[in-house]
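tool=predict chain=A
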Amino acid sequence: MVVGEYLRHVMEKGKAVVTSSRQLKLYSNSSSKDGSNWIYIMDFDHPAKFETLAMEKEKKEEIIDDLIRYLLHGPPGTGKSTMIAAIANLLSYDVYDLELSAVLSNANLKRLVNKIPCNSILVIEDIDCSSKITNQRERNNQGEEKKEKILETVTLSGLLNCIDGLFSANDGGRLMVFTTNHVEAIDSALLRRGRMDKHIEMPFCGFEAFKVLAKNYLGIEEHELFGRIEGLLKESSVTPADVAENLIARRGEGEDCGDDCLKKLIEVLEKSIQ
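tool=predict ok
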């Protein structure tokens, strides 16, 4: 399968009226009785698009060129969930949000995964928060988990088998995205190529990402304060969400709101590196 060619084909089809007008939907297993059924949650109307993502252009292109299995990792507020929404909107795919803690067994997990149709994204967010599978092999080796206590739960091997089974039969119409705040906590078997083909770090806000946010929220593409902000961003560790919060705060308060927002952001950045 040539993923790049397939993606370009999907994008071309996405311009058709039928695709563009289709209402995307969000499903989850968290509300089902035993976690083994997908329940419709709501229409998926997230506005995120790749054009408006606060991210360097090169990284956007890297993601678009090879969409199939991704691990998005980075601190909270760096845009992992927004990236998933942008992918869904780009491809016009429904989103299946898998809550591992609600799944009672490997058999139920397999049943869930097999029910996911084509033209869908399987999402497992905050995989590092799942005590069921995070570094499970290491804990087993140390004797910290007894085998009899994991007979009725999702195991690491169960999750790996589901991933392998889903994509061995994949016709190109399903994607998988994991997210984590702590990539170092995830078992290496889950991270290897063939399961998670690309590891995308969602970084703190850089200058290129800031310019996207300034255009999105303030309609500003150039400003005399940009140079000062660029220098401060190189020294600070703020997320795109932090920056957006300061740009939104006074938006719409008159002609000088852009200047005021940028000055306020400079104050916040200066405090963050003190």
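Residues 257-272 form the longest helix (16 residues). The CA atoms of residues 94 and 120 lie 5 Å apart.
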